């Protein structure tokens, strides 16, 4: 377990002593212990605060290891080596990260602590998404760098509750905006009660909120948060997704982070990343020459070289691939450009703001997996001094550049054949996520869709 710290991530997050005081004076009665699963969801337990002080703070708690071996419906499925019926579905330990104690203002009397996962003998669970990202951050640190990142996460807002949406079969829902509100102050104002509540609540929960803006699809919006070290960014991202859904529910609305919930524009999660020295010095920019460094170019080359093989970590669901369409602002080509939104990699900023934007992930992405893949690819490029391919200055959709996998099946095969993935993540981890893809594909291929019924019920 992480030892108690007197240095929380910022002054809106809590020390162990502050948490103890809140529990003792009755201000906090519930401690939420949560980790992020393969699907990017927070899973865990709600602990009574007094029991937390008496037992969990010192000794931790456990949960069933099937939580890293289920599908989206929480069905136990075959094919995972770490847990199964044959092994008895044992426990894993929730290792409290006491740097992550935060208020949950939208839940009365509640705080959250995020967790790492280990086996009952103390071994780290390597396919845990947080462990995967931590390993890549450690690899960067071994080279003298820290990785900074920011995630820009889009979502759709509907004036229906989640229960109503379920009962309607997710058909005929009422979007919060009836027309394209991209950058529209008027359009954002229509949804501002919800957006404002989310922004202010997340600030109270320890995040640095930047802004909100409308997007292209009906009822589509984005709330952005300031960049931070990669694990902090992923932690915040996971908390924000859950919190935004809960806040929307409390206000009688529903939010979806699906990559492509309808035939209009999908929801993206553009990821910005840069490296700094452990002392904060610039790595991607040469101030004297006012240009990119070779390390930056190698990093970009590595992300591009591994993009097809790592696409499963950027686009983890069947629906993710419906978003990749020409002229949609979602990339289809493995290409880079300067401030070019048709490319999968867009370079922006200069000096301290010099960074690369990965435009491949959608709103359904698991932030830990995507950041781990991006950082691993970049480090691979640096370690092997990969040369950066020529810039794409025009329309990347028609450039003839290699394309990203078009389906989850294609992405699964690309990962399966990747020697780089096995090198940087380990064969055990790669095998685990190949099985994840196999489970999703089997479920989808066995489903009878509305599209099939509409086309074939009468006319075939």
Descriptive key words:
Ubiquitin-like (UB roll), single chain, Creatine Kinase, Chain A, domain 2, 460 residues, globular, nine-stranded mixed β-sheet
Task: Give me a quick take on this structure.
This protein is α+β, with helices and mostly antiparallel strands and 460 residues long. Helix content is 34%, strand content 20%.
Any idea what the shape is?
globular
CATH names the topology of the largest domain as: Creatine Kinase, Chain A, domain 2
Q: What value does the Rg take, in angstroms?
A: 22 Å
Strand content: 15-25%
CATH architectural category of the largest domain: 2-Layer Sandwich
Find the CATH superfamily of the largest domain.
Glutamine synthetase/guanido kinase, catalytic domain
Q: Strand count, sense and closure of the main sheet?
A: 9 strands, mixed
The figure for the number of domains is: 2
- Could you say which structural class the secondary elements and strand pairing correspond to? alpha+beta
Overall number of strands: 17
Q: Which sequence of SSEs, written as H and E, runs from N to C?
A: HEEHEEEEHEHHEEEHEEEEHHEEEHHHHH
CATH top level label of the largest domain: Alpha Beta
| Tally of DSSP helical segments | 13
Mean pLDDT: 95
Regions with pLDDT < 50 over 5+ consecutive residues? none
Helix content: 25-40%
How many angstroms separate the termini? Answer: 61 Å
